[in-house]
Amino acid sequence: MRQTRLNLLLATILTVNLIGVGVLVARTAERRPVTVRAGASPKYDLSAPDQLPGEISVAPESGSGSGRPDSFVGGAARGDGTVFAKYDVADDGAKVFKLDAAPYTWIVAPGVKKQAFAYNGTVPGPTIRVIEGDKVRVVVSNHLPMGTAVHWHGMVLPNKMDGVPGITQDPIEPGASMTYEFVAVATGTHWYHSHFDGDQVGKGLYGSLEVVPHTGDRAVDRDYRLFVGDTNLGFVINGRTYPGTEPLKAKVGEKIRIRLTPTGELSHPFHLHGQPFQLVAQDGFDLPQPITMDTLLISTAQTFDIITVALAPGKWMFHCHIFSHMHAAGPHAGHQMAGLVTTLDVEPAAVPAAPPLNGVNPAVGVPSAPVTPGPDNPPGGDPKDKDKNGGGTAPPGDHH
Ligand SMILES: [Cu+2]
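# copper (II) ion complex -> structure
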């Protein structure tokens, strides 16, 4: 049964990729008018109602960074603790993003505060998601008390845009900004991060950089991103340590894509309970053939795309299997979870997973009408839940 589902998944990916082209073209047309204010200083608003779950507050001594800058996108939470970056479209067609780097006091778990550095007020920084061939322009403003620079990891770009202080550029000094520009030709899941020093990455200066191929993205019901850290903020997934990590939600039968990006200094064998998954891409490149497994060793700087199908309801652990990375120290050491742990919270399917046979639904044993997709029975599950996952201001190229 499991194998059949996984095989089905592969066949569906091909089909829906083709459908995806139309969606991408349609959404590309929904560009908003452009207003790019060069050098505009961020407005910080602690009272903004659109904060992510998990309190974020500010160290008063941290300089200019406080609260969320206006480059933060409210309402675009992905259900995994990440948000999408918004963009404007310039007259020359470039998609213009803004990244404001600033210090924050970050709550990594209930009652646990650390000093973080964040792009646009969030760890990880907002997901930059564009379409193959897009001209990408990113205005990086530095509100940190030291220099910085941003490296576009996995991009094929002009050398002077590579973001390495001392080799391709001078650091962006505190209070200054720099505009990076490149054409997005390297498709797949990549990431961006500070290249100033390891502390800046360790404190949270990184985010997802996704280039959707012209042929469309993989068709999945949920698309999650997990950034793994193991230095300045402790053992964190998307800037949070268990039980502060955000559980990933799914329903039985749904296809779930998880993009894993380790950002720290260690390697982590990530294990999913209850169901296997397929590794489909590494560093943005599709594997010639997906590999089915239940544990994947991820190491610094790589990106991995895995896809699983939720098989049964329950809270299924997804965690690093190195015990010192997943257990609390102190009196409860040994069985209390902390660190690199999250869960895949699977609810029962919205519609019967198995179609009725001869008018009898084998799942319940009583006659029932065949399920026809319609407003009450959407083919991919309950659209309300998809809003939770992908609602808000999802940018072009995003579909399920
Ligand atoms: Cu680990």
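# post-check
The chain has two domains: 26-212, 221-385.
Residues 13-77, 361-400 have pLDDT under 50 and may be disordered.
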